[in-house]
Design a protein that fits this description.
It contains nine helices and two strands, in the order αααββαααααα. The chain has 196 residues and is mostly helical. Helix 6 runs antiparallel to helix 8. The longest helix is centred in the C-terminal third of the chain and has 26 residues.
Length: 196
């Protein structure tokens, strides 16, 4: 494209590193339940989609209207390195690209199921409402139930969703999916204090 820095901004944040915790969880759960000890193309697309969605959420979380952070993953945040408009649009692009990557999975039922899980846990029912509550109640005291709700939605839902995606890729039944999802919620609550 002839935009002076959009592609560079995309590369800047995607090459910044990070733990890739959610993607690793998805792949780890899939391998743990899979009869073949092998990561297939569908699993790689799903893990990549999780990374894209999570990175978009970090970009938006760093914006002046939210946390107004200066650093992310050891590098300057996008809105400071480039500008706020670029940061918003790179985030938007990564969010939609996540679902485009899932749409490229050849098995339509699998693609749809994985998309549904990621959209539910990373969207209005999960991470987004958690972030909205976090921003609304910043510097205010919340009781334990409300604080748990905030952290479940902001962090734990997406972690649990990634683990459930791993069970779906390993062709596990609904009972196993629910059990792993429940474990993921507990892990997500514990992980909240160490998140990037």
């Amino acid at each position: 494209s002839f935009h002076p820095h959009f592609n560079e901004a995309l590369a800047w944040i995607l090459n910044a590193g990070g733990k890739h915790f959610r993607a690793q969880l998805l792949l780890g759960v899939m391998l743990a339940f899979s009869k073949k000890n092998k990561i297939n193309k569908s699993a790689l697309k799903a893990a990549f989609s999780v990374e894209l969605l999570h990175t978009y959420s970090l970009i938006h979380d760093d914006l002046p209207a939210m946390d107004n952070a200066a650093l992310r993953r050891g590098v300057q945040t996008l809105h400071l390195k480039y500008d706020e408009t670029t940061a918003i649009l790179v985030g938007d692009g990564l969010n939609t690209q996540a679902f485009y990557e899932l749409s490229k999975i050849k098995k339509a039922k699998l693609s749809c199921k994985l998309s549904k899980i990621l959209a539910y846990n990373g969207g209005l029912n999960g991470m987004v409402i958690g972030q909205a509550i976090d921003c609304c109640y910043e510097n205010k005291k919340l009781n334990l139930a409300k604080l748990k709700f905030l952290h479940l939605h902001k962090t734990a839902f997406l972690i649990a969703g990634c683990m459930q995606m791993g069970t779906v890729l390993a062709k596990q039944n609904k009972k196993t999916q629910k059990r792993i999802y429940s474990i993921g919620l507990k892990l997500g609550l514990a992980f909240q204090i160490h998140d990037d």
